[in-house]
Amino acid sequence: STGYDFRAIEAAWPSFWAEQKVYEPLDDGSRERRYVLDMFPYPSGDLHMGHAEAFAMGDVVARYWRQRGYDVLHPIGWDSFGLPAENAAIKRDAHPAEWTYANIETQKASFQRYAISADWSREIHTSDPEYYRWTQWLFLQFHAKGLAYRKNSPVNWCPKDQTVLANEQVVNGACERCGTPVTKKALNQWYFKITDYADRLLDDMAALEGHWPERVLAMQRNWIGRSEGAHVRFAIEGAGEDGADREVTVFTTRPDTLHGATFFVVAADAELAGEIVAPEHAEELAAYREQVKALSDIERQATDRQKTGVFLGRHAVNPLTGEKLPVWAADYVLADYGTGAIMAVPAHDQRDLDFARTFDLPVRAVLDTGEEDPAVTGIATTGEGTLINSGELDGLEKAQAIERAIGIVEAAGTGNRQVNFRLRDWLLSRQRFWGAPIPIVHCPACGEVPVPEEQLPVRLPDDLRGEQLAPKGRSPLAAAEDWVNVECPACGGPALRDTDTMDTFVDSSWYYLRFASPNDENAAFDLEQTRKWLPVDQYVGGVEHAILHLLYSRFFTKVLFDLGLVDFTEPFKALLNQGQVLNGGKAMSKSLGNGVDLGEQLDEFGVDAVRLTMVFASPPEDDVDWADVSPQGSQKFLARAWRLAQDVTSAPGADPASGDQGVRRAAHRAVDDAAQLLDAGKFNVVVAKTMELVNVVRKAIDSGCGPADPAVREAVEAVAVVLSLVAPYTAEDMWHTLGHEGSVVVAGWPEVDPALLVDDTVTAVVQIKGKVRDRLEVPADIAEDALRELALASETIRRQLGDAEIRKVIVRAPKLVNIVA
Ligand code: ANZ
Ligand code: ZN
User: Fold this and answer.
1) Taking the CB of the first residue and of the last residue of the chain, which one, N or C, has fewer CB atoms within 10 A?
2) Do 415 and 252 form a contact (C-beta atoms < 8 A)?
3) Is 553's C-beta closer than 6 angstroms to any atom of ligand 1?
4) Residue 529: which pLDDT band, with cuts at 50, 70 and 90?
């Protein structure tokens, strides 16, 4: 036989797979359905090592479930709107679609070469009008429910990309995409009311526990940030109209510390600060606000920064004690959290203590925690303890005191119990071109008018290109006059289209639903089809989406559930975060010069060897360091496995039961282990087990039972099926070499004989009336019933017994059976 030639093998099978449509679900109800989904790619260039890793993992699951007999949906599509396309178009004087769809061609070819077992007949592109029509339609459903609304407020602004950003897109104070420090800008923007779903987003996580990585759940919980506490109202003396008092509410998680409040702080950038400042302090506040503007929220809250602030010339009256507290404006209090105002309790809050020490404000402990005096140490005491200096709260434990204090302010009408969330509404409008236009018309007479459903999609103009798309602080669409000026759908008068486009995270918040009925022209998705396929059984993607995409998708699903459009509330039952591919212990990057080109690896070692290396290197969720792995080694192993099939000489269908028991046992054990390891997500160990099996079979062929033994065939077939999850080309080639006509993709998982899994066997003696007539190899832990049955089923025994009547069978498992006939 000739040697293992991966290039020839890679050329041989793709057309066969396409003809057999092995990756398309049957969708006939004959099998239980499973849905495996990889987070769909952004077509930024060609496939890279990161894709290779992620998609190899998702493909193991899809291929495994197919072998197990499930009807598997494993679709793929493109997250094809977005900034990189627009920036490329500006640079090249092109339309973003040109760059996008050219990239898709390239990447698709690479995905197909990489043999991802995806159903390409369901391919979707979020930038196709057939898709974004439904993104717009969904926006309108949200709008009709009051879940999409516009408001003017300070928003995150990326000065480089010249567009607003959602809070989720600001990472450590910088633009998630380009790293430019984010500033604030007051703008009228569109929001989704995700805050209405904060409680459900939290509560429904219970069902994901154990199926999603714990750190992703923790990140979401933290992002949603539920805090229990109280609203307490303080009167700011003379800050109201005509010198009256003005009531200002604070949010506190520690109403028990009300007696310890020694000053009052409002966020410097909150409108409130400007409204309550005494006239003689207004100038100072204005100057301070200029200073604050330049800072990110992260900087503002950094604990190691010197505290800054200005006195506003006012006093707030503590509703519990009547005490007058000086009112300050500071940057460590954020305008858009809670009420933007706090009561400061320096003894028990470190930020307040730092501020008090900077400005020489009093510190009064109200909880005896046994720790040292914070006024002396500069360290706030935050532990458990007993209330002191707190009037009627004295002597209570912290938790009791919190309850009592809430009771007191509620009874006095100066406060109430309050749950607060860190989560903000999702800012979804973008001042960029390459996205789904917001389907709203602004009419001077009618106001905000939804574009009627039958007029969807609101298509992007196709004549804007190059420089015309350059960021100008307003949407490039505003310059397309023909496009902007429309008749009002309500009154027919002159009106203007909304010129913003939607955040591309809107597109990806529902794409997994579209795959169930990708070509539906009458609906975003077909309820019946989503019933059949969804929720997604296994979702695979990077941890960088722990909050953004995953939180938004969960929110969308809940809204769609409330709208009666789907009948489940969580989109992804299980989530796998694959690790990263590193090189030399570091993430691959241009600046480090440690990038590895996937195409070159595939050319040199072959697709299967690269895939096998990805899977073998580590558990799926761990990083792979390409400097530590050996695609050569993988290739050698694949050649070894492939040669086994070449060597087998028994015919297909030969009965393995008559073959070598040692080989059989090794094969059945390996298949059984593989199944358990796959179910547990330990794909790398499956490869290791397959390597062991290959060694056993090699030995058997060369110096054991030989290539004609049917147990050898059985074992090599098992190798092919297990390998088909990781190395589809090699496995398919082996399968056909072994004489099969169909595809190994749907060969079916080898059936495991439990009797062959037991390593410890003993020889049981079968006697008839005390005389030894047969010996059986049986598992050491065989049950009496099973041993009795085996003995009575033995050919030898049946022959000896003839038609003699069996009077009694005495069984002493595992060693003896005595038949009295
Ligand atoms: C008095 C107090 C005493 C507080 C004490 C804490 C400890 P979480 O848990 O994050 O919800 N706070 C409220 N609004 C704020 C804002 N806009 N910017 C900065 N800080 C703000 O935190 C709630 C606590 O953070 C609140 O409870 C408030 O300080 C502060 F011993 O009130 B606390
Ligand atoms: Zn109108």
Assistant:
1) N
2) no
3) no
4) very high
Note the pLDDT of residue 611. 97
d(CA 678, CA 657): 27
Examine residue 619 and say whether the peptide bond preceding it is cis (omega within 30 degrees of 0): no
Peptide bond before residue 750 is cis, with ω within 30 degrees of 0: no
| pTM (predicted TM-score) | 0.86
Whole-number Cα distances in Å, 517 to 27, 399, 531: 12, 53, 11
- What pLDDT shows up at residue 759? 67
CA angle 724, 725, 728 (to 5 degrees): 45
Which of 224, 249, 251 should be mutated for ligand 1, with most atoms under 8 A from CB?
251
Cβ burial 613-626 (10 Å sphere, 16+ → b, else e): bbbbbbebeeebbb
Write phi, then psi, for 564 (nearest 5 degrees). Answer: 75, 20
Atom of ligand 1 nearest to the CA of 251: 13
Beta bridge partners of 174: 171, 181
* Alpha carbon distance 369, 39 (integer Å): 49
* φ, ψ of residue 817 in degrees (nearest 5): -130, 125
* Ligand 1 contact, 116 CB (< 6 A): no
Q: Locate all alpha helices (DSSP H) within 498-569, ordered by sequence.
A: 504-507, 511-514, 527-533, 548-562
Rg (CA), the chain: 35
pLDDT of residue 417: 97
Q: What is the pLDDT of residue 1?
A: 43
**How far apart, in Å, are the Cα atoms of 669 and each of 660, 673, 710, 757?**
14, 6, 17, 5
Per residue in 472-489, pLDDT (tens digit) is 778 899 989 999 999 999
Q: Distance (Å, rounded) from C-alpha 617 to C-alpha 630?
A: 9
Which residue from 224, 233, 253, 387 has its CB within 8 A of the most atoms of ligand 1, so it is best to mutate?
Answer: 253
The average pLDDT across 160-188 equals 83
Q: pLDDT tens digit string along 300-323? A: 878 888 999 999 999 999 999 999
Type and span of the H or E element at 248? strand 246-252
Mapping DSSP onto H, E and C, the string for 136-189 reads HHHHHHHHHCCCEEEEEEEEEEECCCCEEECHHHEECCEECCCCCECEEEEEEE
CA of 344 to the centre of ligand 1 (A): 8
CB-based contacts of 216, cutoff 8 Å, min separation 6: 543, 546, 550, 575, 577
For 406, which DSSP code? H
Mean pLDDT, the chain, whole residue set? 94
Q: Any binding-site annotation on 590?
A: yes
**Cβ 349 under 6 angstroms from ligand 1:** yes
Question: Pairing state of beta strands 761-768 and 816-820?
Answer: parallel
Q: Which of 462, 442, 460, 461 is nearest to 451 (CA)?
A: 442
Q: Which atom of ligand 1 is nearest to the CA of 380?
A: 31
How many C-beta atoms surround the C-beta of residue 108 within 10 A?
A: 18
Total count of residues recorded for the chain: 821
Query: Cis omega (within 30 of 0) on the bond before 814?
Result: yes
CB 308 within 8 A of CB 288: yes
Any atom of ligand 1 within 6 Å of the Cβ of 260: no
b/e per residue 210-245 (b: at least 16 CB within 10 A): ebbbeebbebbeebbebeebbbbbbbbbebeeeeee
Which sign, positive or negative, has the C-alpha torsion 386, 389, 394, 396? Answer: negative
Q: What is the DSSP letter of 393?
A: G
Helix or strand or coil: residue 539? strand
The pLDDT value given to residue 93: 92
Q: How many CA atoms lie within 13 A of 441 on its CB side?
A: 26
Name the pLDDT band for 261 (thresholds 50, 70, 90): very high
The answer to whether ipTM exceeds 0.85 is: yes
